[in-house]
Amino acid sequence: MAKFVFRLQSYLGVKEKIEEQKKLEYGQALRRLEEECQKKIQLVAMQDELINLFKNSLHTEVNVVDIKRYNNTIEWLKYKIVEQEKRIAAAEVIAETKRLELIEAMKERKMLENVKEKKYEEFVQNENLNDKKRIDEIISYQYNR
């Protein structure tokens, strides 16, 4: 039996490498998104802690400077949280883009693998036909002898 050779094997190899690269990029985008979400969680926790400290300080003697300091810090944290939400939204867009690129790369690889599989099936069928022809020739040669 002859050896099966897929003419587009090198192209398939390139597509597989591209898919692996897209997987890595998507993984990095997801990690970046998770980091941004964690930063927001930390900022919200800091804000909550500061609000609790402020509420607790109201039960004791409070001066205007402390109230201003708490208020300024809380406002600053609110601003940082809004900014972090913008970063999260940007990271989500990037992650979605990378996901779509990965899906496209997977489709391209799958398409080539399907072509390879069909070509292999055709090859096997041709080989089987050739084997049958050879057997028929051998049988007819023996019969004629």
Task: Describe the fold and architecture.
This protein has 145 residues and is an all-alpha fold. It is 90% helix and 0% strand. It contains two helices and no strands. It has helices spanning 9-58, 64-144. The radius of gyration is 33 Å and the shape is rod-shaped. The mean pLDDT is 92.
User: Helix- and strand-based class?
Assistant: mainly alpha
pLDDT < 50 runs, ≥5 residues: none
Using only C-alpha atoms, the radius of gyration works out to 33 Å
Name the shape in a single word: rod-shaped
How are the SSEs ordered, and which strands pair?
Blueprint: H1 9-58, H2 64-144
Helix pairs in contact: 1-2
Main attributes?
145 residues; mainly alpha; 2 helices
Summarize the structure.
With 145 residues, the chain is mostly helical. 90% of the residues lie in helices and 0% in strands.
